[in-house]
Amino acid sequence: MKTILITGALGQIGTALTTRLREKYGVENVIATDIQHPETSSVVKNGIFEYLDVTDQLSMEQMVEKYEVDTMIHLAALLSATAEAKPQLAWELNMGGLMNALEVSRIHELKFFTPSSIGAFGPQTPKDQTPQLTLQRPTTMYGVTKVSGELLCDYYHMKFGVDTRSVRFPGLISYEALPGGGTTDYAVDIYYEALKNQAYTSFIDKGTYMDMMYMPDAVDAIIALMEAPSEKLIHRNAFNVSAMSVCPEDFEQAIQAHMPAFKLSYDVDPIRQTIAESWPNAIDTTKAREEWQFDTQYSLDRMTADMLEKLKTKLLK
Ligand code: AKB
Question: What class, spelled out in words, does domain 172-212+243-282+297-316 have in CATH?
Fold first, then answer.
C-alpha cells in the first residue's frame, strides 16, 4: 500500500483508520474522502480530504488518477438499522458504491478492501462457533448487500484478478466517531451514557449475545490483512474476525468495576432486537488466525478501562 484512497472516511471505522494510516504510511499518502465535510473533524483538518459521492464512478476514477492511488479502502455504506428503514437506498448505496469501487479498482489495478459484517449471516446460520464457510441467508437488507458484496468481491478476484480482501466485522466499539444506524451501537452508547448519566437504557435485550471488537484491533486487522501475501489467502471475502462474544449484562459488569453506581435498564427496540437475534452469538475466527495471523489485544475489561479513560477526556473538552 503506497497511496491509499478511503471512501466513507468520516464514519466510525474511517475516522480511526485514516488517523492510523496517515501515521503509518505518511499524511501525503492517504486520501480521505466522504460525502460530508465537517470542518471540525480531525480527518478533514489533518491531511488530504476530498468530497466524494461513491455513487459517482467518474469522480471516483478522477480522484484515483489525480493522486495516483494504488489501494482503495471502500467503507461508505449504510449500517443495519438504517438499511432496514431505507432498503432501496441501502441497495443503491451499498451495492452501487461497491460496484463503482470494484470497477475503478479493476481499471486501475488497485488493491482493494471493503468490510463485510456478521450481518452477512442469518437465522439459519449456526449460532455458535459460526464457521468461515456456512449457510448465509440473511433476513435484512444490510445482510443481503453484505452477502452480495462478498460474492461480488470474489467474482472480481476470480474473473479479473482484482486483489480484493475483506473481513466480517462484528460490532465495533470506539471513542472517536459514533457508529450511527447499527444494531450493535448500544455497545458504544453505553459508555457515553455511563459517563454522562451513570445509567443506560439498552435497546437490545438482556442475554442477547453478539460478537464485538475494539476499534484499535479492527484497524490492526485491516492493516494485517492488507499486508498479508496474496498467495496465503485462501478465503479472502470475507474472513470471520471477532474479539469477544458479549451481551448487555457483560458491559454492565465491566463498567460497574469502574463505576459501581452504574445502572443498566432495558427498553427493547423490536426491529434492532430481531436483527440481533438473526445474527450469530459467536463466530469462529480460525481461518483468519491461520491465513494472516489475525489477533486481538483487547478483552472486554481492557477495552472498558481504555474506553472510559479516553471518552472521559473527550467529553471534558
Ligand atoms: C451494525 O450493527 O449494523 C454494524 C455491523 C455489525 O455490521 N455494527
Answer: alpha beta
* CATH superfamily, with its number, for domain 4-169+214-240: NAD(P)-binding Rossmann-like Domain (3.40.50.720)
Answer for the pair 2, 71: CB distance below 8 angstroms, yes or no.
Answer: yes
Task: Indicate whether 234 pLDDT > 90.
Answer: yes
Judge if the beta carbon of residue 79 lies within 6 A of ligand 1. Answer: yes
- How far, in Å, CA of 147 to CA of 20, rounded? 28
**Alpha carbon nearest to ligand 1 atom 1, residue:** 182
Q: Which of 12, 75, 78, 80 to mutate to test the pocket of ligand 1 (most atoms within 8 A of CB)?
A: 80
**Domain ranges (residues) in the chain:** 4-169+214-240, 172-212+243-282+297-316
Q: Helical H runs in 198-268?
A: 215-227, 248-256
How far is it, in rounded angstroms, from Cα 120 to Cα 142? Answer: 8
- Residues of the chain with pLDDT > 90, as a percent, come to 95
CA 314 from chain centre, in angstroms, equals: 22
Flag whether pLDDT at 80 surpasses 90.
yes
Going from the Cα of 67 to the center of ligand 1, the distance in angstroms, rounded, reads: 31
Model-level pTM?
0.97
Least confident of 38-42, 66-70, 145-149: 38-42
Dist. CA 117 → ligand 1 center (Å): 7
Q: In what order do the strands lie in the sheet with 116-117?
A: 116-117, 167-169, 239-240
Q: Which three cell numbers stand for residue 33?
A: 474522502
